[in-house]
Amino acid sequence: MNIGDKIKEQRLKKELTQEQLSDLLNVSRSTVSSWEVGRNYPDLETIVAISDLFGISLDNLLREDTEMAKDLSKKVRWNNYYKRILIVVGALVLIYVGFNGKMRMDEQRYLKNLTAHSWKQDDDRFSGSYALKEEGVLYATYIIETGFNPVPLKESHPWVIARKDKLVVEVKNGNKRYVIISSENDPKVTYNATVEVDESGNLLKSDPKWSAKKEQSLKDYLKKYQKEYVELLKRTVGKRQEIIG
User: Could you list the residue ranges that cross the membrane (predicted)?
Assistant: First the structure.
């Protein structure tokens, strides 16, 4: 006997109409009818309610109905699956909210420090950019606006570019130092490249794509202006630290 037959049997024993049973279970009469003819099955919560209403165990109610058991097992598996999805989605939302909150606080701190150190917004270039000219050096930075932004947190920290005459340097997250060697800044430059250097202005890493001639040319250029680069990078690190606070 399937569960639909058992529901009908117990309903008749209680002398209830389909309408009356549907009222007791808070479902429609057509739902009760579809159970009894085997078109579909009650959900787990309703099965428990039926068990309590008729005073029979879940084991007796479900016994012999293999299709119902399969359907119920499938629903339980899907419920567990959806619960896992909800947990993952909830965790991602919490991570995003925390990340976004951190970015918002960082942004406000950066903007406050920029104002305190006389940086001016440079809207002529693009929104979010700021500039400062001091002792013959032009500094520039960019503050990422808070919002839905897929940029990793470490990349949201401001970089600072500094230009003095034909020399250009950049300081990024972690105070990584870069020298920008370009013929646009110095017509005498043979090879263009942005190279990472140490505190003493020495080349840290070579690009495998460079020829030996290009690498030597870049090293020679760094050596030629080493003193100037070291001083400019030192100032730029200081300016970046003022922004970060």
Answer: 81-99
Q: Give a yes or no: residue 215 inside a domain.
A: yes
- The domain total for the chain is 2
Domain that holds residue 121: 113-244
The crossing angle, in degrees rounded to 10, of helices 18-25 and 29-36 is: 110
Start-to-end CA span in the chain (Å): 75
Q: What pTM value is reported for the model? A: 0.60
Count Cβ atoms below 10 Å from residue 237 Cβ, excluding itself.
18
Residue 197 phi, psi dihedral angles, 5° rounding: -130, 165
Q: Any idea what the CATH number is for the domain that residue 52 is in?
A: 1.10.260.40
SS3 assignment, position 179? strand
Can you tell me the mean pLDDT for 149-173? 79
176 pLDDT exceeds 90? Answer: yes
Which burial class, exposed, middle or buried, applies to 215 when counting CB atoms under 10 A from its CB (0-12, 13-18, 19+)? Answer: middle
Q: What is the mean pLDDT of residues 110-132?
A: 85
